[in-house]
Amino acid sequence: MTFALLLTAVAGLLPFTAGHASIFHPSMWGFNVTAQTFPYDNRPVAPLINYTFDEWWFHGHLDHPPNDGDFFELPAGEPATAQVACDKGATTFFASDPGGNIQNGDDPCPGSPPAEYHTTGLSDVKGCALAITYESDVSQVQPEDFTIFSVNQTCVWTRFTDFQVPARMPACPEGGCICAFFWIHSPDSGSEQNYMNGFRCNVTGSTSNVALATPQLPRRCGADPQNDKPEASPGNCTYGAKLPFYWFQAERNNMFEGTYAPPFYNDLYNFLDGAQEDIFADSYPNGLPSPSPNSTVVPSPNLYDVAATSTPFAPSITPVFSVTSSSSVTPTPPISSSSAVTPLANSTSTASLGAATTAMCKSTLFRRRQQRRSISHGPESVADVMAPRVASHRELQDRSKLWRAF
């Protein structure tokens, strides 16, 4: 056996604890895919870049479906806790991982520094998102069918990652819904990489039958000082239901940003932290304006008395105006868009409503971040996160040298 073949054989027996990340759950397509399943590394954590549609769509794992009956539950109005990691062995599902159990508390990448999951630190994480389509037949799902319903702006950072579910999420059809995990990391620690993992999901505790609105293309509208745009442009935002980002692939892109200006699931594209509570067919009963860089029109959603865990974009320099357009939002099947809920009256104030919205959004975002940092299964500070990682990295550094060669 040659030295190269020996190294390859050894690598196949070792866990890949460094680099990249994915959600892990038995409900996902590709849950049992390993580094040897495909002619190339197509594990769930492998990045997607410049791939054909068949290669990047559902990570190319459509021929590796979950077992019947495996669903990731989405409790309406509550957090759904996912495990995000660099290797399945770092999760509670380690039993089916070739490398075995390498769990290390809330560390998503045991034995590896944060640079291995593409961040220079907590201030450099750019957010992950969950999307849903109310279709149970995966062969019928297209990229335009997914709607982002939850965002965690401090992802990837901890293994146990909460995704707040909107309170008004309708029930899934028979056979469940189909969801997907999306992530694009900071350009400071890596190349133009996308991450997508599809999984079967089911909304529980639903109390609404109002459909999701037809998702629209997100627009870059937040403050972007790295690209010489120090001020936000709220009138250029997409409000309501939004599509995921499909970026830097060989086919079917909907985002065309450059190498050093990737799209992110955060305020830059009006994805605030937490549940996206304004994604429903009746969220904007007066319609939505046409976004424009010079627009000063910012719509106000009707949240139907839902205590928002996330609110639409908080303008810091532009007053909020009510929209008087009579255009309607087209609901997506198969859930009926009819509702017995009586809409609240839209506010018509301008500067005062803008100030109130700004304060509410900032307070909500601060509260959500504080709650996330103090959850029972998570670290309470950056120091708490880094200390065990440093120790673990020292312990595993000799083993790490073996698989880094590949």
From TrEMBL:
Cofactors (names): Cu(2+)
The keyword rRNA-binding appears for this protein: no
Tagged with keyword Oxidoreductase: yes
Main location (coarse class): secreted
Key words, A-Z: Copper, Disulfide bond, Glycoprotein, Metal-binding, Monooxygenase, Oxidoreductase, Secreted, Signal
Signal peptide as annotated in the record: 1-21
Annotated localization: Secreted
GO molecular function: metal ion binding; monooxygenase activity
Entry's family note: Belongs to the polysaccharide monooxygenase AA14 family.
Protein's name according to its UniProt entry: Lytic polysaccharide monooxygenase
